[in-house]
Amino acid sequence: MNKSELVEALSQKKNLTYKKAEQIVNLIFDSMSQSLVDRDRIEIRGFGSFMVKDYKSYLGRNPKTGEIIKVEEKKLPFFKAGKGLRERVDR
Predict the structure, then answer these.
(1) Which of 20, 21, 42, 56 has the fewest Cβ atoms surrounding its Cβ within 10 A?
(2) Whole-model pTM?
(3) Which PANTHER family match (predicted)?
(4) Is 13 helix (H, G, I), strand (E, B) or coil?
């Protein structure tokens, strides 16, 4: 499912206009994104949690040239599935 399919499903399920459903989905995604930027953890019971993980710098290799390069430290979003989601997918 992509974002437009999610908007379409919401608009049909809750009898909303496509534009109103799109505003709701955008508000949710924007709020979640801002929380991660602010280094807050997002937990949705039964679904999972989102957090930002810190990765230290390391020496890597350019696969095309074989040259050794330094990969700078970075922060990446991370999702951990909740127990309810894991069990539902495993059925």
Answers:
(1) 56
(2) 0.81
(3) DNA-BINDING PROTEIN HU, INTEGRATION HOST FACTOR SUBUNIT BETA
(4) helix
